[in-house]
Protein backbone atom coordinates (compact mmCIF):
# COMPACT_ATOMS: atom_id res chain seq x y z
CA UNK A 1 0.00 0.00 0.00
CA UNK A 2 1.23 3.46 -0.87
CA UNK A 3 2.37 5.53 2.11
CA UNK A 4 -0.21 8.11 3.20
CA UNK A 5 2.15 11.13 2.93
CA UNK A 6 3.06 10.08 -0.63
CA UNK A 7 -0.61 9.78 -1.54
CA UNK A 8 -1.32 13.23 -0.12
CA UNK A 9 1.66 14.77 -1.94
CA UNK A 10 0.51 13.12 -5.16
CA UNK A 11 -2.98 14.50 -4.73
CA UNK A 12 -1.71 18.12 -4.61
CA UNK A 13 1.01 17.74 -7.24
CA UNK A 14 0.52 20.25 -10.05
CA UNK A 15 -2.66 21.64 -8.46
CA UNK A 16 -3.56 25.17 -7.45
CA UNK A 17 -4.39 25.75 -3.79
CA UNK A 18 -6.46 28.62 -2.38
CA UNK A 19 -5.74 29.37 1.27
CA UNK A 20 -7.56 31.81 3.54
CA UNK A 21 -6.01 32.86 6.82
CA UNK A 22 -2.50 32.51 5.45
CA UNK A 23 -1.12 35.26 7.70
CA UNK A 24 -2.22 33.59 10.93
CA UNK A 25 -0.22 31.08 12.92
CA UNK A 26 -1.78 27.96 11.38
CA UNK A 27 -1.84 29.47 7.91
CA UNK A 28 1.90 30.09 8.02
CA UNK A 29 2.49 26.50 9.13
CA UNK A 30 0.29 25.13 6.33
CA UNK A 31 2.09 27.24 3.71
CA UNK A 32 5.47 26.07 4.99
CA UNK A 33 4.34 22.43 4.90
CA UNK A 34 3.09 22.73 1.33
CA UNK A 35 6.31 24.37 0.15
CA UNK A 36 8.58 21.92 1.97
CA UNK A 37 6.69 18.64 1.51
CA UNK A 38 5.03 19.13 -1.88
CA UNK A 39 7.60 20.84 -4.09
CA UNK A 40 5.58 20.14 -7.24
CA UNK A 41 2.44 21.99 -6.14
CA UNK A 42 1.22 24.16 -9.03
CA UNK A 43 0.42 27.47 -7.31
CA UNK A 44 -0.59 28.63 -3.87
CA UNK A 45 -3.07 31.52 -3.78
CA UNK A 46 -3.33 33.26 -0.40
CA UNK A 47 -6.21 35.57 0.53
CA UNK A 48 -4.78 38.43 2.60
CA UNK A 49 -6.88 41.34 3.78
CA UNK A 50 -5.84 44.83 4.82
CA UNK A 51 -5.31 45.17 8.55
CA UNK A 52 -4.17 47.96 10.87
CA UNK A 53 -3.48 50.37 8.02
CA UNK A 54 -1.32 47.92 6.07
CA UNK A 55 -2.29 46.71 2.63
CA UNK A 56 -2.11 42.99 1.79
CA UNK A 57 1.19 43.34 -0.09
CA UNK A 58 2.89 44.93 2.94
CA UNK A 59 1.61 42.15 5.18
CA UNK A 60 2.88 39.49 2.79
CA UNK A 61 6.30 41.15 2.58
CA UNK A 62 6.50 41.20 6.40
CA UNK A 63 5.73 37.48 6.54
CA UNK A 64 8.44 36.59 4.02
CA UNK A 65 10.99 38.90 5.66
CA UNK A 66 10.35 37.48 9.14
CA UNK A 67 11.18 33.91 8.11
Automatic annotation (TrEMBL):
It catalyses: a long-chain fatty acyl-CoA + 2 NADPH + 2 H(+) = a long-chain primary fatty alcohol + 2 NADP(+) + CoA. SUPFAM superfamilies: NAD(P)-binding Rossmann-fold domains. Keywords: Lipid biosynthesis, Lipid metabolism, NADP, Oxidoreductase. InterPro entries: FAR, FAR_NAD-bd, NAD(P)-bd_dom_sf. Residues 19-64 form the Thioester reductase (TE) domain. The keyword Lipid biosynthesis applies. The keyword Lipid biosynthesis applies. One of its GO terms (biological process) is long-chain fatty-acyl-CoA metabolic process. Its EC number is 1.2.1.84. GO terms for cellular component: peroxisome. It comes from the Eukaryota. Belongs to the fatty acyl-CoA reductase family. Catalyzes the reduction of fatty acyl-CoA to fatty alcohols. This is Fatty acyl-CoA reductase. It comes from Bracon brevicornis. The lineage of its organism: Eukaryota, Metazoa, Ecdysozoa, Arthropoda, Hexapoda.
Amino acid sequence: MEELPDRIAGMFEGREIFLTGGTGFLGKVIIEKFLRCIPNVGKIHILIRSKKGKDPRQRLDEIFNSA
